[in-house]
What does this fold into?
Amino acid sequence: MNEEKPHKNETKKEPENDCAISLLETGRNAFPEIINQIRSARQEIILHMFIWREDRIGVEIAGELLKAADRGVSIVIEKDRYGLLLEYGEESQRSFCHSPDLLERFQIKVLCLACNRDLYRKHLQVKRSDLYRKLKEHPNVIMKDNRKTKDHSKYYIFDRRIMILGGINIEDKEYFSDSKGRIYYDYMIKINDSKIVSQFLDKRVFPQKKNELFRVNTREPVRYFELKESFLELIDDTKCELIIIMAYFAPEKEILSAIYRALERGANVRILISRSANYNNDTNWLTVSKLLGHKHACSSGKPSVFVTDYMLHAKLMMNEKRIITGSCNINKKSFNRLGELCIAVNNDNSPFACQVRASVEELFRNSRHIHDGDEIHLNRFMAAAEMTIMR
It folds into this structure.
């Protein structure tokens, strides 16, 4: 592991433009910007996180938040307890916020047995740190970390002026690499516009209210799930090209049927997945097998499937008109059970859309094209087990 402080590493600089929305590629670009915004905040920080590990990145973010609280910044931290299963189910098995109860310990053991057997017998370190207690007990901090809201979204809001959202959790592997040496590729989006941030805060209270930018799945304050419909609309509106970049790709029949219809219309469909994903790897390959082997592939053409050596944690769908990206995977759990947050923007000549297209094409250039089913390495038993466990 690299020994220098995360925020002092050299990273690709954010393009200098006055656009309200910009792309932060990978944790190496996102975390320094997040730390910079924590340091610059003067009044309020709102943080919503699914996974927050007690590792170098996790401790540094917490330390910066504590310093902000000490200088009088009001901080609200919403940390979903549901995420502790993954915090203890892989990597260092350390959570910054949570100690598992008896049922959660059992669920963690099942998850390790299915996906990370080398961790199955490892003793769990469940004691919370002094830094966590200082942050939780600070008079300027409201820590909401004891509820399982099943909200998979990740975002930060600084002084109700700047917002950073996307797919990156607070964990070392998004900055360095994971325990198996995989380098993560992920997206966060920076929004620098107080009016847009206000629209998001309004969307949190009234999720049914139509918003041109934000798309949400939420269980609170009311149950409202719109992302599946948004994804379907984008696919059905595709005329020329459909691009799917997905961490965990197990579409329901409606999504698969929409992809087949796009192929029948003559659209070029390109799909990118990880060669070896940390979770749901066989499920990803099962989906690819279905797409390449379906009867429609003979008459309408096959999608072009690519694999990357990155641990692809990004979630993006794009056609010639629109881009949707954020925290939402294409699977039943994300569409029907988890809270999610994405943005939907025009695929035009704006700086943000140009950044996205450049990033996407670079990913495809550095990936490998899978031509037929003979190149698919699939364990159907594991795929069935993954779909059962991750429901």
In short: The chain has two domains: 17-205, 214-389.
